[in-house]
Amino acid sequence: MSVETTATAAASGANATERFRSDKSAAAEVSTERVNALASRVVKALVDTVMEEKVSYDEYNALKSWLIKVGEDGEWPLFLDVWIEHAVEEVANADREGSKGTIEGPYYVPGSPVLETPATLPMRDDEPGRPLLFQGRVTGVNGEPLAGASVEIWHADDLGFYSQFAPDVPEWNLRGTVIADSEGVYQVNTVQPAPYQIPTDGACGQLIASAGWHAWRPAHLHLKVSAPGYQLITTQLYFTADEHLSDDIASAVKPELVLEPKDKADGTGREVSYDFVLASAA
Ligand code: DHB
Ligand code: FE
């Protein structure tokens, strides 16, 4: 099979790299003082590791060829979002009131179709997976309803594939921007996402296999929730009893973010409620 017909690391990595370049890299400005402080510390951490672990030339060269391969596979966004972003998110949102956030990950695409509540995410006629009704309310920290709040959702399909990062999935599949009603209430019909394995055939997969780790993230919904005058929350929601809640490769699970869906009374799948609380903009 060709790169076009399989979900290879190189294909999803190249897409994630391209996506990052077009959305985010231009905005990044860091002062000389901070670059000096941060780069010095990172280099020192590596040098300390070499000295303390007595790293050999074979190990040093293995690292060099691995770092080269991360770039060739386009996996820097994946590597950073899996192993580092959770700490950046923790620092960024340490003092924020309201609902918990967590990492964005590499597969967000801005500009998904705007849908009025009650909404159904774009999906294929024969979209596999158990139907899920996801609903709730968006308020401020004082309980004020946020009329017309935006609930942007994206998630993997029943096979663990994200649209625009895996071949043969329609462009906006399982991605949408749902507009809450005048009471801040939103309702979204979608399907239960599957647990997700980060690509195993590229450099990140090679690291995982070589270190004897696993590549799994628990099944999750990604969200960005916002309203004018309030701070946008980037978060994820997980599902109770998922075997990878306690050992997420991306360290992005928080106990407040675990949903417990129930069977719908009419037998058409499952439903769950989650209320978002947004902090006022600074
Ligand atoms: C990765 C994928 C995700 O879906 C996510 O939420 C975080 C990280 C990744 O492959 O790096
Ligand atoms: Fe994800």
Helix content: 25-40%
Largest beta sheet: strand ordering = 1-5-4-9-10-11
CATH architecture of the domain at 92-278: Sandwich
Ligand identities: 3,4-dihydroxybenzoic acid, fe (iii) ion
Briefly note the structural class of the backbone: alpha/beta
CATH class value of the domain at 92-278? Mainly Beta
Spans where pLDDT lies below 50 across 5 or more residues = 1-5
Q: What pattern of helices and strands is seen along the backbone?
A: HHHHHEEEEEEEHEEEEEEE
On the 0 to 100 scale, the average pLDDT is 93
Radius of gyration: 20 Å
The fold-level CATH name of the domain at 92-278 is Protocatechuate 3,4-Dioxygenase, subunit A
- Note the main sheet: 6 strands, mixed
Please state roughly what percent of the residues sit in beta strands, choosing from under 5%, 5-15%, 15-25%, 25-35%, 35-45% or over 45%: 15-25%
Distance between the termini: 51 Å
Count of extended strands: 14
Q: What is the count of helical runs?
A: 6
Oligomer: single chain
Shape: globular
CATH superfamily of the domain at 92-278: Aromatic compound dioxygenase
